[in-house]
Amino acid sequence: MIDVGALLEKVEAAAPIDAVEAALAENAAPGQFVTGQLMRVDLHAGTAAIVNAGHPFPLRRRHGRVAEIDLRIEAPFGVLPGKSFDVQPFSLEPGDRIVLLTDGMQERNAVDLDVATALADTADLHPREVVHALRAAVPDATGGDPSDDATMVCLDRYGGPPRGRNTEQGADPDRASAALLPVHAG
Questions:
Q1: Cα separation of 136 and 119, whole Å?
Q2: Maximum Cα interatomic distance, the chain, rounded to a whole number of Å
Q3: What is the pLDDT of residues 122-158, one digit of tens each?
Q4: I need a labelling partner for 158 at 20 to 30 A (CA). Which of 14, 43, 62, 80 fits?
Q5: Helix locations, the chain, DSSP H
């Protein structure tokens, strides 16, 4: 088993993406590999850049339409020792929703889960609620027996000038779906 925590400790936030490969070589047994997506978002420029090492294409909901972000999927980290990974840019517009997935959300016995349709159907939900809804759909699609990890990250690009946040337990209640907000006794 690969100690992902040890890998992350070796890779500083500002280090080149290639440092992941070096950390894996130092901490993993021969033949082991890690799939992953590393993404950096530049909110001021409205762009993101990603290294995709063995995961499905990211999905983007823009103007009500869900589509794959057509980027190159490279070999997982550790498969080709010494490989340099390409950092691939893509645009972000206000209103975009980006979803990063592991292959367990789309392959093997979760193949019946239509993530793009589920993403379109959850357009009015807060990103955290989207993750919860899709996570709940995996056992239904797999009959309760997923054969692989099923992990996702959902990000919304709100746009506009920087603003303060009103948060409760890390989430802004003004952005959460009304039906799912906690009820507070007055």
A1: 13
A2: 60
A3: 888 888 888 888 777 766 655 555 555 667 888 899 8
A4: 14
A5: 4-10, 18-27, 115-121, 127-142
Residue 70 lies in a domain: yes
CATH of the domain at 126: 3.60.40.10
> What total of structural domains would you count in the chain?
1
Is residue 169, in this structure, part of any structural domain at all?
no
- Domain-embedded: residue 81: yes
This prediction's pTM: 0.72
CA gap 73, 126 in Å, rounded:
28
Q: Which residues of 158-180 are buried (b: 16+ CB within 10 A; e: fewer)?
A: eeeeeeeeeeeeebeeeebeeee
Structure tokens at 94: 């206000």
